[in-house]
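For the sake of clarity, the format in which proteins appear in this thesis is described at this point. The record quoted next illustrates the convention:

___
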Amino acid sequence: MTVVPAAAQRARLLPVRRSVEHADTDASGVVHFARYPALQETALLANLERLGVGLGVLASAGFDLVVTEATTRYLAPARYPDELNLEPVVGRLSVARARIDTTVRRTTDGAELATGSLVVALTDRATGAPCALLPVLHAVLEESRSDVHR
């Protein structure tokens, strides 16, 4: 199956805004440490969808996008009801994996709250076996890389 990304001409990972919800926080109103990888994934998935290679496209081609590694470095607390800017960039790209580096900032003052990375790969939906990134996904991620990360 050949998929042409809808936004191939404008393939860039863009910041995604998200409000901290009460469910994201611990009893003191601070975002729980376990929520940061989910925020990183939200930024990646929103961008892949916008660029025409979202989870539905991958699933219809017989693949699942899986996270194989997640890291987070906490710098300052996010709190309910902060508005966050999730800023993903393609940090590393190979035939089979991509590392997406994300900075989490508070929108009101631009404070850097956390940085983190997700390493993602594809698996065959039927067998669960690891696969190379689809050429269309690889092309979108390659086009999205900043010159700093090439």
Q: What stands out?
A: The longest strand covers residues 112-124. The beta strands are 16-19, 63-74, 83-93, 97-106, 112-124, 130-131.
